[in-house]
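>> received
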Amino acid sequence: MTLHSVDIFIIIGYMVSVVLVGLWVSKRAGKNINSYFLGENSIPYYLLGVANATGMFDVSGTMWMVTLLVLYGVKSIWIPWLWPCFNQIFLMVYLSVWLRRSGVMTGAEWIEIRFGRNMGTRLSHISVVIFALISVIGFQAYAFKGIGKFIEPLLPWDWTPNTYALVIMGITTVYTIAGGMYSVVITDLIQFVIMTLSGIFVAWIAMTQVAPEQLANAVPAGWHNLFFGWKLDLDWTGILSAGNAQIAKDGYSLFGIFFTLMLFKGLLASLAGPAPNYDMQRILSTRTPREASLMSWFTNVALFLPRYLLIGGIGVLGIVFFREQLNTMGDKVDFEQIMPLVLNKYMPVGVLGIMLAGLLSAFMSTFNCTLNAGASYIVRDIYQRYMNPKAAPRKLIWLSYTSSILIVIVGVLFGYMTDSINSILQWIVAGLYGGYIAPNVLKWHWWRFNGYGYFAGMVGGMAGSLVMPKLFPDMEQMHAFLVIFVLSSLVSVVVSLMTRPEEMGVLKEFYKRTRPWGFWGPVCEQVLAEDPDFRPNRAFGRDMVNVAVGIVWQVSMCAIPIYMIIRQWNGFWISVGVLAVTSLFLKWNWYHKLEQD
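>> returned
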């Protein structure tokens, strides 16, 4: 296609503006590393919530979710539980509060609060840093592959997808390095406004261009239904030739089994708390533990309603108007191209430029917050901890710049070696996080778990995630997750029981500061013996009820935009009613109790 000069001007103007924002706040961000990485813990929770939501509003993930909507219909709302997306509910209800009470800068620093200062702690610390850097590089490769595939069909120059990705990543790196957390949050706010307006506009186009009868003729029976049985029961025969093959390749045909495994994995991953990336960094950047919880609440609100307006609009336009074009691709069909195809055809001059700027901003937001979090581990947890504890603030800032550039280079190299967005996504979700979950659930909830067990579980899990794809390349991703999780769990527990428990003084200090619920009986007894006025956390039942209600609340926010766009008004009004009821319940049983805590 050939972009109009107006669209090109809008895109270039946006790129220049975000770089100028980074340069504008660089002086304030460069005062010290707390300012650079956490914004001096002075940023309001709602701005951090918007920034966190925008960081998850990425191009690669949006392309993937559009593909899911096209193939699986309204049932596609469940599939992002693979991440799991409902971990934000666990964070909102209680885990953000626990984490923020620590007062640390990174997830690796938290290890010392939990396990004290000993060899097990040092080994655990190293394992967290390694995991954080591996996951950051994986997300950089994921972003690199996604932005190239998205932008190449839309821009007029005869460049490869990887060349486009390099240029855009270079620009993003400049303003991220210059402004640190301040730059990330300010530009994320701009990006959120653009993406929300873009989602509204695309949803409006889909509703005015596609009649319900057109959509019904373009999709199989059951496509409009949110709920499911043991089998998926979507048959694309005679409608979309590659549809059934792609569903079989995904492994979701027995949707009941897939959903059960996904829910099991998602609950465990949520209990583990946030991974050491931008989500954790946002929580640690809040002003108070209460605001940490409110930040996670606002992330849910700011993410799901606007994002599903965009996904729903693009998905409906794609399946109705590009089904024949997809059929002509035969076995080489690339569903990830639906989004750029739709934007190419249906966005008018000026609006297309704003839309592309918004989607580029979504990529840049995911990229910049991941990059900022990754650099914090190199500077804070490697260099300052092991090499130069007394390094001057200015030296640490310059090392932050260098670290960011190094992470980008390595992420790009891995992106070059990967064929598709989905392959990276599946490895991160099922492989890498399969080894992360067990030790990180145990660290919160079991007093006897120690640093050696944590290190063994993390290393065993990471090794399994790297080796399993090589040894068993045809194994289903969810089955690989179960194998890696069981391995990591056994290693974590056995090594902990074979080694000494952590010092009781360390455990008591952690328990008093964090106040978790779980299997902390011996520690709680000693704390109460010393301080009879101490109030143990008895909120397990209340928290679990709020989590269950919160997950329903989150699903309703995903369903409302989809049902509105496809004009299934019964489903729409039921979802609105569910959202209202669950919101009132959470206000009474979570928000007001949070104020008391």
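>> The chain has one domain: 5-418+535-596.
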